[in-house]
Amino acid sequence: MLMRLFSGKRIPPVAGVVRGATGTGCSGRVLGVLFGAVCLVFLQGCSEKTSSRIPLLSLPPSSDFRILQPVPALPRKVQDSKHKKPPYIGLLFSIARPRPGVVVAVGAQSVIWRIRESSGQSILIRPPVKSEFYKVIFTDPGHGWIVGDGGTILFSPDRGKTWSVVPSPVKGKFLQDIYFADARVGFAAGEKGTFLKTEDGGKTWVKLPVPTSDNLYGVYFRNHREGWLAGWHQTFLVTHDGGKTWSPVSLSVPRVTRQKPSFNTLWGKDSAVLLAGDHGLVYLSNDKGHTFNRITMPSEKDLYGACQTGTGRFVLTGEGGTIWGLEEGGRVRKVLPPLPADFLGVTCGQTHIRATGTPGVILLPKNPPKSSPRS
């Protein structure tokens, strides 16, 4: 999946200092860029040693959201070394909320951020392995999972504070998504039709065959038996026996380009199953996946993330700062003005959402619940 990163109109450079926006206190010369109602600044000539020159975003004071863009600080031994560390690219793929007041975001370059929402304190967690991390979930407030490149599977027993490697039956293939039907039965999906299953709470995983060699980007199971896989070139499969056998799901998909669109995200809860992907394609089932109806979106921007709030509203995120709210009855509402960012992951609470993406953006509610000292 190729991401369109930044756009905007240049304005003359202005000297200034930006502190705290990156979580490192980095200061330097600011170049301003206007993008609608959003201010985009580029930090140049940083006086403190960091590994990044990503553009910084800000929202107008009237917004219900705020933006964090934490940047890893370079260790002193790397600062003084002739061998420079690759710059931080700020590519965050997924975000999850283990408990009120705390979020965990993961991405490229082995990045795992753990953030207190009330203070904005961003802690870079040291991973047990170097990899690209594509998905993070928490099955309950204490237990978390990450999947990524090279068949990586990580587990956290302490709300995302520490992570350990779980043996994986695949090597050299990325895992894009992970989902648990309950505390013991879980599934993961990824590159070239890779599909994994666990029946012992994630201690051991086995690879099961699926009738496709296309990349799989989403997995969801209503229970131990009924589940779906979504991915490259309109791949959409259903199983009724826990993943032993699969059948294609037929959908009416409009032709936008010569290449078939991909389905990039899959979400479900209770009787609802939501599918979204390239060119703003969205399909919703309210009858446990028996039938799917297409929802017409206001734009054809690619969609990468989906979730549902406790109030029942679906939220979809994607390229160009896209955040759509799908209300009951199919009405689509814009949640946020366009941003020079791509929101690649989103998580929903009772009423609020948190999203993440490029350039190193973590979008949080302006007034989040306070986290406890033990969080």
Q: Looking at CATH, which topology of the largest domain would you report? A: Methylamine Dehydrogenase, Chain H
User: Helical element count?
Assistant: 1
CATH class of the largest domain: Mainly Beta
Helix proportion: under 10%
User: What's the CATH superfamily of the largest domain, by name?
Assistant: YVTN repeat-like/Quinoprotein amine dehydrogenase
Percent range for β-strand residues: 35-45%
Query: What is the domain total for the residues?
Result: 2
**Structure classification:** mainly beta
Mean of the pLDDT scores?
84
Overall outline: globular
Q: If strands are numbered along the chain, what order do they take across the biggest sheet? A: 1-2-3-4
- End-to-end separation: 34 Å
Number of strands: 32
Radius of gyration from the alpha-carbon trace, in angstroms = 20 Å
Q: Major beta sheet, specifics?
A: 4 strands, antiparallel
The CATH architecture term of the largest domain is 7 Propeller
* Low-pLDDT runs: 1-50
Domain Photosynthesis system II assembly factor Ycf48/Hcf136-like: 174-292
GO cellular component, one term: photosystem II
Pfam families: PSII_BNR
Protein name: Photosynthesis system II assembly factor Ycf48/Hcf136-like domain-containing protein
What is the element layout, followed by pairings?
Blueprint: E1 9-10, E2 29-35, E3 38-44, E4 55-58, E5 65-68, H1 76-79, E6 92-99, E7 102-107, E8 112-116, E9 122-124, E10 133-138, E11 144-148, E12 153-156, E13 164-165, E14 175-180, E15 186-190, E16 195-198, E17 206-207, E18 216-221, E19 227-231, E20 236-239, E21 247-248, E22 263-269, E23 272-277, E24 282-285, E25 293-295, E26 303-308, E27 314-318, E28 323-326, E29 332-334, E30 342-348, E31 353-358, E32 361-365
Antiparallel strand pairs: 1-2, 2-3, 3-4, 5-32, 6-7, 7-8, 8-9, 10-11, 11-12, 12-13, 14-15, 15-16, 16-17, 18-19, 19-20, 20-21, 22-23, 23-24, 24-25, 26-27, 27-28, 28-29, 30-31, 31-32
